[in-house]
Amino acid sequence: MNLAGKFIVIDGPDGGGKGTQIKRLAERIARECGVSVRTTRDPGGTAIGDRIRHVLLGYDLSLMAPNCEMLLFMASRAQLVAEVVRPALAAGQTVIGDRFISATCAYQVAAGVPREKVLEMGRLAVGETWPDLTLILDVPPELGFQRTGRTPQKAAKKVVGGDQLAMFADAHLDAMERRPLDFHRRVRELFLELPAVYPKPMKIIDATRDADRVTEDIWKALRDVFP
Ligand code: TMP
Q1: Given ligand 1 and candidates 99, 100, 168, 198, which is best to mutate, with the most ligand atoms within 8 Å of its CB?
Q2: Cα–Cα distance measured from residue 99 to residue 9, given in angstroms and rounded to the nearest whole number
């Protein structure tokens, strides 16, 4: 498989096992395809993006207008693409992205932003740098949150004061996790609808099964798209 200069994104509802799968995929691509692999996280992944990530996930999002929320995710991504993704692809690296525009098409559309607007802003934010393949690790929110142990119904304790949440202590939920289970059900539905309307190739992977099966399905999907 020639994956030099290819951009692969892993996305999906919380608790789908993205972290584990990205780590495995990065190691396997480097080993079996002989290319250098760069992993990125979105939102964040740059000094500027990490500051935007803090504004997004460390505060009470009910105070933020949905368009502001969507534009901040896009702003972080515009920086990530300019600073990290584009140079890495140009240098022949394989880039594996932890989330991308696909996440905004699910979470911020569930929060009330029209999907067309998200795609339009996505084009502005990243230009031509869209993923060659996006894999959605699909898991129902009940199972996802059971796995992460961070259920949305549990009220987050405000420990910082005002409307700022404690972000980094494991016991506390980030701003997205604080949204109700129905929101996360809608997020999952929107991810499942996305392959039909997303401008770039996308596949759904059943992530309810054990991690080894998911790893094999991801590898098979890559082989199908990059023979
Ligand atoms: P993470 O858990 O993958 O680091 O992502 C942080 C949270 O931000 C997660 O709940 C998904 C959410 N998110 C959005 O709402 N919109 C986006 O565009 C992205 C990239 C993430």
Answers
A1: 99
A2: 6
Residue 56 to residue 61: CA distance in whole angstroms: 7
CA-closest residue to ligand 1 atom 21: 103
Atom of ligand 1 nearest to the CA of 11: 3
Give the torsion sign (CA, 62, 195, 150, 55).
Answer: negative
Closest CA to 81 of 92, 68, 97: 97
The CA-atom distances, in angstroms, between 159 and each of 24, 165, 215 are 36, 7, 38
- 103 C-alpha to ligand 1 centroid (Å): 7
Ligand 1 midpoint to CA 75 (Å): 14
Cα dihedral 152, 157, 163, 166 sign: negative
Query: Which atom number of ligand 1 is nearest to the Cα of residue 101?
Result: 18
Q: State pLDDT tens for residues 152-208.
A: 755 444 445 555 655 444 446 788 888 889 999 999 999 999 999 999 999 999 999
Q: Are 179 and 187 in contact (CB under 8 A)?
A: no
Give 1-50 pLDDT, tens digit per residue.
999 999 999 999 999 999 999 999 999 999 999 999 999 999 999 999 99
Of the candidates 155, 156, 152, 125, the one whose C-alpha atom is nearest the C-alpha of residue 141 is 152
Supply φ then ψ for residue 74, to 5 degrees.
-70, -35
**Helix 115-126 and helix 66-80: axis angle, to 10°?**
30
